[in-house]
Amino acid sequence: ISLEIMQDPVVASDGHTYERKCIEEWFRTGHNTSPKTRELLTRELIPNRALKQVIFSCGKKRKREEVTEDPELDPVFKILRHSNEEPVCREACLALANVSLPILRSLSVDSLTAVLCMRRSFPSSTHIQASVRHVFRQLTDNTTFSIAALLSDMAAHSLSLPMQEDRCRILADLIMINDAHANDFVEHQGIQLTLAAMQRFPFAATFQQYVCLIVAHLLSSSSTTKQTDVAERVLRYGGVSSLIRAMNTFQEQETIQQAVCLAMAYLTEHDPSQNAIPRLEFMNLAMKALCRFSNSECVQSHACLMLRKLIIDLTVLPKKWFYKSSVVHILIQSMSRLFCSLKVQQHALGVLACSLNGKRIEPGALTMVPESIETIYNAMRSFPTCEAVQEHACSIFAHLITLRACRRSMVDQHRLIIEAMRNFPESNDIQQSGCRILATLVKNPANEIILSNGALPLLFRAMDAFSENAAIQYDSCLLLISLFKTHLIQRAHLLDYNVMKRIQASMKRFAFWKEMQEIGCSIMLFLKQCQIDILDFKPIIDDAVIRFPSSHVIVEANRVFCLGSRE
């Protein structure tokens, strides 16, 4: 009515909001109809507290903007608020980073917010990012811009979406800049407060985005000292249902999708009962995100990471889900499209390896996707120093080696397997998968080429380093048997590598494993043919005969040994 900003807004019976003084004056002058709709009005007026709070916040913000903390900083903040040019903003941030601490502490919330905006406006500028971090690391104890003060504002204006959104945006920036702020946020009940607001404003996209970013950072950051406490609070205060609703409601919001995927990847580690998190629902959401944001490196890597953790934890998962959702096809396409992204390659290979290890998919499902084998080889070539990539790739090939169609390509690319074994001698999974692959490949006509690339020393090194690993010992012995049969290993090799002592150690360590005893006896017979003294085998073979009297291989070895002793 007055065309001025309201001081005491009230809602009349027509549903419209008026200034209290103006509408009461309207009634006193004899009017009983609505100034806007002309319908009859009652004299009942209801205070509009939400609008009053918004007006108060805007007025307070405008007043603060009019106050200048230090006249010398006016040009700096004018640039920060109005300039979009990276060189100019970089110089302004560098100038602010050199300001003394007392002046920094005198800055208002709005001025500091303008500094934080630089972090989002120029994410690729290392100078701006470093300057902003430097400013806020000095302001850890700033009472006007502390975590406690920001959370207090959110609690006091819990029904004001603009206030919640503004403070949550600042909190997200502070938590990601300074690890101390993340711990303060947890200690001051920040998780409970933001999750409650998340449920209060389920359709506010920007606000939901900031909360998802906060939760994802707190769960994924190794610097957060109370990571377990964070996960427990998220689970306790309805964080899982809020994250599901955010992913379903804002399916086109890339930031929300990648933040929720990252948060859930780490949240599953703190839900051993598997009751608090609907894993299958999150897996379906992850597949939708993979398809929708096929060119986003963050979404692809975070969704693959979440899938891998969920597949590991989920004990019962129907195979038809993998084939119905085309997991293998989508992952191979993602690896081909983002071939330069280490995280995408690592996590996508991790999903495939976990699926094969858990028998969720058959090895043949991988070969049905065009260029899948070559895509995995490309990942090994592109990231030879990444242990996770090499480990997952070797694990996948250890399953594919059972397929005759894949062996030919593996013979051609065996150098990658040997190189992985050479680069990561302490990785149990790489050595185990490598031994299994080489033990199978050496049966092919190209076994001489494989040996020429230094497979034999790697084999014996793995046997020594992982003496308790039954799979490595057994596959290594299988490889030796193949070499004996093809006459590719000479007596000098046997003596140089102390083959007899290694076989004896394996047979003693796995004395109750029939297959190990049989293959050890077979190697002993080859050693005898090479005219190597095998008298030390007598106690081992005697024990094997007692334990496995029905084994033809062990009985034959004992007979040959007895004949040799008589001679």
List its salient traits.
single chain, 567 residues, mainly alpha, 69% helix, elongated
Provide a descriptive summary of the structure in words.
The chain is mostly helical and 567 residues long. It is built from 34 helices and 3 strands. The chain has helices at residues 20-28, 49-66, 74-82, 86-97, 101-105, 109-121, 126-137, 147-156, 161-177, 179-187, 190-200, 205-220, 227-236, 239-249, 254-267, 279-292, 297-313, 319-324, 327-337, 342-357, 363-367, 372-382, 387-400, 404-412, 414-423, 428-441, 447-452, 455-465, 470-485, 491-496, 499-509, 514-529, 538-547, 552-566, and strands spanning 9-11, 17-19, 46-47. Strands 2-1-3 form a 3-stranded antiparallel beta sheet. A hairpin with a 5-residue loop joins strand 1 (9-11) and strand 2. Mean pLDDT is 81; it is low at 63-69.
Give the SSE layout:
Blueprint: E1 9-11, E2 17-19, H1 20-28, E3 46-47, H2 49-66, H3 74-82, H4 86-97, H5 101-105, H6 109-121, H7 126-137, H8 147-156, H9 161-177, H10 179-187, H11 190-200, H12 205-220, H13 227-236, H14 239-249, H15 254-267, H16 279-292, H17 297-313, H18 319-324, H19 327-337, H20 342-357, H21 363-367, H22 372-382, H23 387-400, H24 404-412, H25 414-423, H26 428-441, H27 447-452, H28 455-465, H29 470-485, H30 491-496, H31 499-509, H32 514-529, H33 538-547, H34 552-566
Antiparallel strand pairs: 1-2, 1-3
